[in-house]
Amino acid sequence: MKTRIYTLLLLLGLYAVALQATDNSTTSQQLNSFTQHFTTFAKEYPQEKAYLHFDNTAYFLGETMWFKAYVVTAERNGLSSLSKTLYTELVTPEGNIVTTKKYKIENGQCHGEFQLPDSMYSGFYEIRAYTRYMLNQEKEYLFSRVFPVYEKPKKAGEYNLRKMRERYYSQRVPGQRKVYEQKGSLLMTFYPEGGNLVTGLKSKVAFKATGKEGENAIVSGDVLDAQGNKVSELETTYLGMGTFEFTPGVGKYTAKVRCNDKEYNFELPQAQSMGYAMMVDHSCKEKIDILIQKSPQQFADTLGITFSSRGKLYASDNNHR
After folding, report:
1. Residue 297, Cα to own-chain centre: how many angstroms?
2. What is the DSSP letter of 43?
3. From 89's CA, which of 114, 122, 214, 257 has a CA 20 to 30 Å away?
C-alpha cells in the first residue's frame, strides 16, 4: 500500500457555531470577531520557544552535559528579545528536580552545563528549559528532552558497556505520565485526522509504531471490524509512521499487524456516533484541499476555518454550511 506521509506545518482550527436564529449574518459576525481577537492576541502576546543543542545523545555518570540554548519567537523562529533569563532543570526518572540553573540570555542565546556526579543514580533523566514568559503559554512550548545516563565505566574508556543500576524499591515514585498499552516489544498509537473518528464518515488515520526501547518499528497488516472483516490495510513508510483510510461503522476496530515475524493486535480509538470529520490534501503546491464531512443527524451549522502556525493567523473563511 502506497501511502504518502506528510508533515503538517499548519495548525488547522475547525470550529462550529450552531444557528440559533435564521439570521446568518449574526453568526458570520461572531466568526469574524473570533479571527480578529485571534490576530490581536497573537500581535500583543507573541509566543516564545526554547531549543537546547547538546554535545551528546547519551551520558555516563561523572560526565558533564554541555549545551547551547536558543530562544526564538514561535512565529518566525527568529532569535527572541522578549526574555533575558533562561531557566533549566535536571529531572530524575521519578520527576524530582535535582538541579536548577539560570542563564543570562544575550541576543537570544546562551550556553551552560549539567554535571552528573558519581553519587547520582543512573537512569533516564529529563532536561527542561523555559523562560518566565513561556510559562504563560501551553506546556508544549517548554523545551523537554530525555537522556539515558549510564553507570560510570569501571575502566576508563569502556563506553561500550552501558549499564543502569536498579533503584531501591523505597526510592521509587509511581510515574504520572500517560501509559500506553504495549504488546510485548511493540507499541502502536493512532491519530485520526481532525481529532476523532465519526461513524459513517471516511477518515484518514495516522499511526506510529515503536519498539521496546522507543526505536522506530516496521509493521504491516490489516484493519479489521468487530466481525473480523478487512476494511483497510496499513504499512509503515517512514520512521515507523504511516497512514490508512477507512469508513468506521458501529463497533470496535482492530489493527492486526506483523513485526519481526510476530503478530500483534491493537484496538483503534472508538468512533463517535455523530460529528464532523476533516481530511486535508496538500499534494498540490499551489493550494490545500480540505474536505469536511458532517453526520446526517448533525444540525446544520455555519462553519469557520482558520489557518494558523506558531501563533500567527494566515487565513480564515466562514462562508460554509
Report:
1. 32
2. H
3. 214
Q: How many CA atoms lie within 13 A of 101 on its CB side?
A: 18
**87-129 residue pLDDT tens:** 999 999 888 899 999 999 999 999 999 999 988 889 999 999 9
- Compute the CA torsion angle 290, 296, 301, 304 (nearest 10 deg): -10
Shared domain for 246 and 151, answered yes or no, is no
| pLDDT bucket at 147, cuts 50 / 70 / 90 | very high
Structural domain range at position 289: 11-41+181-320
**3-state DSSP call for residue 271?**
coil
In a domain, 6, yes or no: no
Separation CA 220–CA 236 (nearest Å): 7
The span from the CA of 21 to the CA of 5, in Å, is 42
| Residue 5 located in a structural domain | no
Residue 136: predicted pLDDT: 78
**pLDDT at position 313:** 78
Distances (CA, A) of 128 to 51, 86, 98, 241: 10, 10, 12, 27
Both 187 and 297 in one domain: the answer is yes
Which CATH number goes with the domain that contains 101?
2.60.40.1930
Count of structural domains, the chain: 2
Residue 111 shares a structural domain with residue 221: no
Give the CATH number, domain containing residue 197: 2.60.40.10
Integer Cα distance of 183 and 101 in angstroms = 40
- Give 155's pLDDT tier (boundaries 50, 70, 90): confident
Q: Which residues contact 157 (CB under 8 A, 6 or more apart)?
A: none
